[in-house]
Design a protein that fits this description.
This protein is of the alpha/beta class and about 725 residues long. Among the domains are: about 60 residues, no CATH class; about 110 residues, 2-Layer Sandwich (GMP Synthetase, Chain A, domain 3). Helices cover about 35% and strands about 20% of the residues. It contains 23 helices and 34 strands. A hairpin with a 4-residue loop joins strand 21 and strand 22. Helix 2 runs antiparallel to helix 3, helix 9 packs across helix 10 and helix 17 crosses helix 18.
Amino acid sequence: MAKQLSLEQIIACDVTAETATEILPHINQSLATLPAIACWQDLTQHLLTPKHPFSLHELLYKTAFCDWDVTQGMPPAWFPTQMQAQSTNIVALMQALQLKTYSQLHTWSIENRAKFWDRMVQRLGIRLQQPYSQIVDLSQGVESPQWLVDARLNIVESCFQASATAPAIIFSSERQSRSESLRMWTYQELHCLANRVAHGLVDLGVQPGEAIAIDLPMTPESVAIYLGIVQAGCIVVSIADSFAPAEIAARLRIAHTRAIFTQDVMYWGGKCLPLYHKVIAANAPLAIVLSECADPVVVRPGDLTWRNFLSENDTFNAVPRLAMDPTNILFSSGTTGDPKAIPWTQITPIKCAADGHLHHDLYPGDVVAWSTSLGWMMGPWLIYASLINRATIALYDGAPTTRGYGEFIQAARVTMLGVVPSLVNVWRTTHCMEGLDWSAIKAFSSTGECANPQDMLYLMSLAGYRPIVEYCGGTEIGGGYITGTLVQPCAPATFTTPALGLGVVLLDENGQPTDKGEAFIVPPAIGLSTTLLNQDHHHVYFADTPRWKGLPNDPSRGNLPAAAAASITPLRRHGDYLERFENGYYRVCGRVDDTMNLSGIKVSSAEIERVLNQLEEIQETAAIAVSPPAGGPSQLVIYAVVRLGTELTSAALQTQCQQAIAQQLNPLFKVRDLVIVESLPRTASQKVLRRVLRERYNTIAVFWDGLERDRQH
C-alpha cells in the first residue's frame, strides 16, 4: 500500500496551508523510506508536537502502520530508548540478578516467588520491628499463604524514609485562585499530623484492631488521617465520598465501625456537596468533622470538630502488628446486595509499592497524581506506592474534567499521571487539556475500565508521546495482575505483561488453554486477599476453578514457567476476559459476566463497544444482551451517548453501528435496537452498570409487548 499523503489530507486535519506545505515533504519522505516503526519514531520525535491537531497525529499513525499485522494487536506508539530502559528500576533488578531480558526476570519472579518478594521487601526498605523467620508459609495451601511469618511491623513506618524536608504532598483545589502558588507539605509535616491523629484516637480510648471509617475527599488531611489510623494499629474503613446514606450505613455496619472522619461539605465541579449530612443520615457512630466552610461546623451531640479532636502531641510510636493483620477494609462496588468487604493487611501495601517501583518506575523525587479517593483502592494505592518509594503525591481537590486540573498537573510538574479511560474521553471531547506544558510527565497509567485506543493515543500526544502503563487488577489483588513496563514498547490500550510475581493463564469455557478467554491467576503472591469479612473467600475465588498443570507447549503458558507449571495448582478466579496477541501483548475485553451469545457466538460487551466507540458521532456506548419477553435467543441492544452536535436519528445511528459491527466483528451480530441517552449509569468506581440498563430495557420491552397484545384483542 502506497504511503504518501496529499496536501489536502494534511489541511483537512485543521492544519494551515502554510504549515501543511512546510511539513508535508518530511512526512512523505519518512513514509516512503522508513519501515513503519522507524517512520513513526521519526515523526513523533522530529515533527509532531502537542500543538498539532490530534487529527494529524491520528492520520500519521494510521498511515505509518497501514500494513500492520493485526494479529500483533495495536501498533506500538512509544519505544524506550536504550538510555531510558537502562535507567529503570526493572533493569536495575535484572542487573542485580544477572538476568539479560525482561522475560527472564518475569520467569524468575514466578519460579522463585519467595525470593522475589524477599528481594522486594529489601529493595523497598520495608521497616520491621521484628524480622520474619520465613518469607512465606504454604502449609495451608496456596489459597491461604502466610507471608512474613513471625514479623511484627507497622507499614506506616515504611512511608517515612524520605528526607524530612522532602515534599510529601503538593496540592491545590479548584477554588484556589490561579495566581496563588501551589501548597506543599514536607514528609515531616505529614508525619507530625499523622502522629497527632494517632494520639487523638488513643485519647478517645480507641484500641488497636478497631475500625475507623473515612468519608472524605482526597486531601492532605485525609492522607494524614489514613496514616494516623493505621499507625495506631487500627483499621481504616474506606467509604467513597459519593455514597448515599444507605450505602454508607451498610459499610459501617459490615465493618463494625467505632468512629468516622468526615467533613461538612466538599466542592466538586463548582458545586457544594454535603458530606456530614449524609453521615448523620446513615446513623453513623462518633464523627470527627473537618470544615471546608468559613463558618464553624455545628456538630451532632457527641461528635467532635477536627480542632477539638487533634492531639497537640506530634510524636508517636507506631503500634506493631502481625503481617497478616488488617489495616484497611475496602469494598466492591456493591451493585446487588451488601458490598463485598475485602481486608488489606500490613503487607498489602508492599504489593502497591512493588508495582509502583517496578511497573510505574517510581523514584524518589517523582510527583504522582491520580484522581481518586480513599473510598476506592487507588486512593490507598497512591499513598503507599508514592510514599514507600519516597516520591511526592500531587492532590487536586476538585473535578479532573476541568482546565484547572490540567494547569495543576503542569504547575506541580507531575511525572506520573494516572487516569481512567472515561476521563481521557472527556478531555478529548472538550479539548480542555490542550495547549498545556506536560513535558515533565515521564509516564501515564490507566486503570478502572477498558480503554479506547484512540483516546489513549490522544493522551500520549498531550505530553509529546510518553508511555501509558495499562494497569488492571482489583482491590482483592492490592494492585495489578496484568500491566505494562517502561522497558517494553507501548501500544495504546494494550497490556504488555502479567505483573511481576504473578502468573496468569487464559482458559476457555471448557477449562482449556486459549489465547482468548477467562483470566485466572496462579497463586500465591503478596497482595492477593486471603479473607473476606462477609462472604466465603474460597467460594468466591477458588470454588470449582480448574486445577492447573501446564505443559511447556500450552499456548496459555505465556508467562508461566516450567517450574510453576510442573505442579498442580488451584487457579484463582478473577473474572476478566482477555485476548493475548501473537507478540505476547494483551487486551482486556471486559468481564466474563459481560459476555453474550449472539447467533451462537460468544462475544464480550467490551469488544462491541470498542468498535462502536470509534465512530465519529459516538462518545461512548454500552452493549447489552436482552431476551425477548416471550423468550428466545439474546438480542443485542446498544445504549449510546452521542457527541455534541450530532444530528443523526437513533435509526440512522443504529445503521452505522450495524455496519461497523459487521465490518469489524461479525455480520451475524445484529443490532436489535439503539437507545440514545445523556449518560450511562455507573458505580462510584466508574464501572458501567449494564445490569441496570438491561433492567430498564426489559421494563420497556414488557410494556410495549403488553400494549401490542392489548391492541390485538
